[in-house]
């Protein structure tokens, strides 16, 4: 059976994704969030309109993804927090694993001695994961992850495609 090869470069080059993420890796978190645009500019209802065609939508998306990138990261973080707050079982399991790992590491390789029992570090790790893995599966993380991808994509791409470019950038593009 022949394998289907998808040219990823052809798909990603239209949205210029390769160079867009290079700047994200080189910036610190404080620098990244210092670039947040004001909420009045991010949610300016006067600049919302339907793009005339796919080319106009693509141009808006390219411009807005670069211009509002810090705001879009903040939206993705808020949606992630909302996803965890609405799936309390997943939140509990994540906290359970983090606190359990922290507690086991605090023992520094020593055994946990209770009045009636003694447990080695490997037994504690095994017990932690024997409890955490079924709870994790029961929490349905795939559903939360797919919801998060869909909600983030619709929110960010919807905003980026419907938000017009500022007038000064439209005139500067015509001169070129």
Mean pLDDT: 85
* Spatial shape: elongated
Our Rg estimate from Cα atoms comes to 23 Å
Uncertain regions spanning at least 5 consecutive residues: none
**Biggest β-sheet: strands ordered side by side in the sheet:** 1-2
Q: Give, in order, the helices and strands.
A: HHHHHHHEEHHH
Task: Write a structural description.
By secondary structure, the chain is an all-alpha fold. Helices cover 72% and strands 2% of the residues. The chain contains ten helices and two strands; from the N terminus they run αααααααββααα. The chain has helices spanning 8-13, 17-26, 29-34, 39-42, 54-67, 69-86, 88-106, 121-138, 141-162, 167-175; strands spanning 112-113, 118-119. A two-stranded antiparallel sheet has the order 1-2. A hairpin with a 4-residue loop joins strand 1 (112-113) and strand 2 (118-119). Helix 5 (54-67) crosses helix 9 and helix 6 (69-86) runs antiparallel to helix 9 (141-162). The longest helix is centred in the last third of the chain and has 22 residues, at 141-162. It starts with 7 loop residues before the first helix and ends with a helix.
Short description:
The chain is mainly alpha-helical. It is 72% helix and 2% strand.
Keywords, separated by commas or semicolons:
mainly alpha, 2 strands, two-stranded antiparallel ribbon, 10 helices, 2% strand, 176 residues
List the helices and strands and how they pair.
Elements: H1 8-13, H2 17-26, H3 29-34, H4 39-42, H5 54-67, H6 69-86, H7 88-106, E1 112-113, E2 118-119, H8 121-138, H9 141-162, H10 167-175
Antiparallel strand pairs: 1-2
Helix pairs in contact: 5-9, 6-9, 7-8
């Amino acid at each position: 059976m022949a394998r289907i090869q998808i040219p990823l470069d052809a798909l990603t080059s239209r949205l210029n994704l390769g160079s867009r993420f290079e700047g994200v890796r080189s910036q610190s978190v404080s620098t990244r969030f210092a670039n947040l645009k004001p909420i009045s500019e991010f949610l300016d209802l006067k600049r919302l309109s339907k793009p005339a065609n796919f080319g106009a939508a693509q141009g808006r998306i390219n411009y807005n993804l670069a211009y509002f990138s810090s705001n879009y990261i903040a939206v993705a973080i808020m949606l992630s927090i909302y996803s965890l707050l609405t799936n309390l079982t997943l939140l509990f399991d994540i906290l359970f694993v983090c606190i359990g790992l922290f507690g086991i590491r605090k023992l520094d390789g020593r055994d946990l001695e209770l009045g009636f029992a003694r447990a080695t570090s490997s037994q504690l790790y095994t017990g932690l994961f024997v409890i955490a893995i079924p709870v994790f599966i029961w929490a349905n993380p795939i559903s939360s992850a797919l919801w998060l991808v869909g909600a983030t994509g619709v929110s960010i791409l919807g905003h980026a495609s419907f938000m017009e470019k500022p007038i000064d950038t439209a005139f500067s593009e015509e001169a070129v």
